[in-house]
């Protein structure tokens, strides 16, 4: 079946501003629709791009990752938000193919829009231990305090043994939010009490 035909009903729902129908159609798509969705994400208007990215979160393959990485730089805030969220969703399905794109996703922690920063942080949480190194890089090298606090937030949410060394370093961070997220994470893991008893 022609991929363009596959997304024709979706395009009609988008044009009609029928979000409920568009979402229902997205959930019916398979990887056969990916070429048409990638073209729509790259060349469509902001609303079409948003839905294409949303659909790729559901049915995208590793072939979608370069286009999604580029879409992280779209002018429209809502498109950047849905792209970050889609990359987080794809990390659950695709795993290691996403690894080369994690630094670019982590760079979104310094986005001008708070909604993008939060979406990127939540997406990185979905990536689990694979996101620890890019998050630590943000904490160490970024001068953007919003990015640093979102990185600490993500490390707290990941909360695995791989996060512990970075969280302990954050206990002395001058940024109050970074310090607080680290303290809360280590406390929840029972590691602060262990350190005090030793």
Note the overall shape: elongated
Estimate the mean pLDDT confidence.
Answer: 93
What series of H and E elements makes up the topology? HHHHHHHHHHHHHH
Uncertain regions: pLDDT < 50 for 5+ in a row?
A: none
Helix segment tally: 14
Quaternary state, please? single chain
Termini separation: 66 Å
Structural class: mainly alpha
**Mind telling me the C-alpha Rg?**
19 Å
Share in helix = over 70%
Give a short account of the largest sheet: none
The amount of beta strand, in percent, is under 5%
Number of strands: 0
Summarize this, please?
It contains 14 helices and no strands. The protein has helices spanning 3-6, 8-15, 19-26, 34-43, 46-59, 65-71, 77-94, 102-107, 114-127, 132-141, 145-158, 164-170, 176-188, 191-197.
What is the topological layout?
Elements lengths: L2 H4 L1 H8 L3 H8 L7 H10 L2 H14 L5 H7 L5 H18 L7 H6 L6 H14 L4 H10 L3 H14 L5 H7 L5 H13 L2 H7 L1
Helix pairs in contact: 2-3, 4-5, 5-7, 6-7, 7-9, 9-11, 10-11, 11-13, 12-13
What do you see in this structure?
Helix 10 packs antiparallel against helix 11 (145-158), helix 11 (145-158) runs parallel beside helix 13 (176-188) and helix 12 (164-170) packs across helix 13. The protein has 198 residues and is mainly α. 41% of the residues are buried. It has helices at residues 3-6, 8-15, 19-26, 34-43, 46-59, 65-71, 77-94, 102-107, 114-127, 132-141, 145-158, 164-170, 176-188, 191-197.
């Amino acid at each position: 079946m022609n991929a363009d035909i596959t997304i024709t009903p979706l395009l009609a729902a988008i044009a009609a501003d029928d979000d409920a129908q568009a979402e229902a159609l997205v959930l019916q798509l398979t990887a056969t629709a990916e070429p048409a969705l990638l073209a729509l994400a790259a060349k469509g208007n902001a609303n079409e791009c948003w839905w294409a990215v949303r659909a790729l979160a559901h049915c995208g393959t590793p072939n979608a990752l370069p286009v999604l990485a580029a879409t992280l730089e779209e002018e429209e805030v809502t498109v950047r938000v849905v792209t970050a969220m889609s990359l987080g969703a794809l990390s659950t399905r695709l795993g290691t193919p996403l690894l080369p794109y994690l630094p670019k996703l982590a760079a979104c922690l310094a986005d001008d829009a708070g909604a993008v920063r939060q979406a990127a942080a939540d997406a990185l949480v979905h990536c689990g231990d694979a996101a620890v190194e890019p998050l630590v890089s943000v904490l160490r090298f970024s001068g953007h305090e919003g990015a640093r606090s979102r990185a600490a937030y993500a490390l707290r949410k990941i909360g695995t043994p791989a996060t512990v060394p970075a969280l302990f370093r954050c206990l002395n961070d001058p940024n109050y939010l970074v310090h607080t997220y680290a303290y809360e994470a280590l406390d929840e893991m029972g590691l602060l009490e262990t350190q005090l008893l030793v």
